[in-house]
Give the backbone structure.
Amino acid sequence: MSGPLDLAIIIASLAVAAWAGFAGFRDRAPDRVQFAGLIVLQAGVVAMGVVSGVALLRGERPAELETFVGYIVTTVCWPAVAFVLGRMEPTKWGSVTISVGCLVIPVLVLRLEQIWG
Amino acid sequence: MTSEHSGMRPTGRGPGRVILVIYCIFALAAGARAGVQIATKFGEAPLAYSLSAVAAVIYLVAAIALSRNSTAGRRVALVSIVVELVGVIVVGLLSVFDAQAFPDATVWSGFGQGYGYVPLVLPFVGLFWLHRTTRPITEPATKPVTEPVTNSDGA
């Protein structure tokens, strides 16, 4: 696992979560910054997926392989899911949804690091 | 879409969308966990692993029911959320007092401790949301509303 990339994803997702949460608090629907943020996060998790995939192909093995694969697949799909759900709800609750979605990403990344050991 | 038929507020929109997302997260979390555990080491703790699978199904049913925005969906959601509430309390108590039955964790062990106690709070949020959306749709503001319809449904 790549430490700096993980850290960057965690910080970015917290930033998007804060921005979206603030937008929800101010009664604002998801804005371009939120969607742009989710696209950046998507790029980050895809990069993470590629790095993990390459490591697995080179024979490195996490402590629990099945669990790791489950988490990495979820993580790679997650920003896209938040994006779609945010689009479906053009009210302040869309912003809250994106905020909650972004708060899940650090948990996923930390769990991945934990499983990789 | 089908909210017009029930005459009540849709359960899957607005704040309901956020609740829906959280239910989906837990369906996924519990389901993935159960899938891995059952596939790799079912014999170690069959009760705990089966329970994880049951929990996942309940979260999924609740999520789908809430997204339906219909009277039937509302009823299914109510039942699944009550089962969820009973589940988290019973499993929480058992995992504390009869640890042998749960050598490995489930989403509901220790009242959802491993998941920031969200599993314990979530059913209450779900029930509150169902209650909130039971009131018929009324136009906000203008005159003070004196609760025109008292819902004798009780369900």
Q: What stands out?
A: The two ends of chain A are 9 Å apart (CA to CA). Residues 104 and 112 of chain A are 12 Å apart (CA to CA). The mean pLDDT of chain A is 92. DSSP finds four helices and no strands in chain A.
